[in-house]
Amino acid sequence: MAHSGINVLFEGTNFARLMGGLWTAVWIAAISLIIGLALGTILGMLRTLHNQVIRFILLMYLEFFRIVPTVVLLFLAYYILPRQFNVNWPATWMAVLAFSLWVSAEFSDIVRGALESIPVHQRESGLALGLNQWQLFRYVLLPQAIRLELPATINLATRVIKTTSLLLMISIMDVINVGQQIIEANNQNYPTGVFWVYGLIFILYFIIDYPLSRWAKHLTAKQKY
User: What mean pLDDT do residues 47-55 have?
Assistant: First the structure.
């Protein structure tokens, strides 16, 4: 009797391995977002200052991460840094480093845009009250900017989660890598296994990203009114 293709998901520890690979992708994305959003907030604030040198350097930083493909960033972090700077971190943490720098660059532009969209009189009122630059950001500008940043931030988070599919390029056992191994190991018994394995991976990513996408659209629509 021919095997049903869906059984490949439950053969041995296949399903548990896929969930383990998904967890690897999720925690790398989550930590990268936490670090990247924190660093991006600082860089975004600096980009609103009047210092032309700082603004130019940070603009080049942003353009670098926008132009260079993410897979190249992963290769740079995984192959170049260990050799040139003697950084011997595990591949998972090299991926966190690459993703964090990418997120910080993208988020700095979101923060800059949100801060600059706040009416000028808000800044002038804060200065008139005697607030210094840090207090102005802390108590006046950032609280208002967060609401404006939220839809774009959620969209950025969905992009980061999707981009974790590139982790297999540096041999990290993420869900894609595990799925490919399962397909190759069971190809004889389950010729249609590729459909079921990648179908499950599609559903898993959809379950994670779709609620975030809907939330971002809801917030964007709400801000228009």
Answer: 92
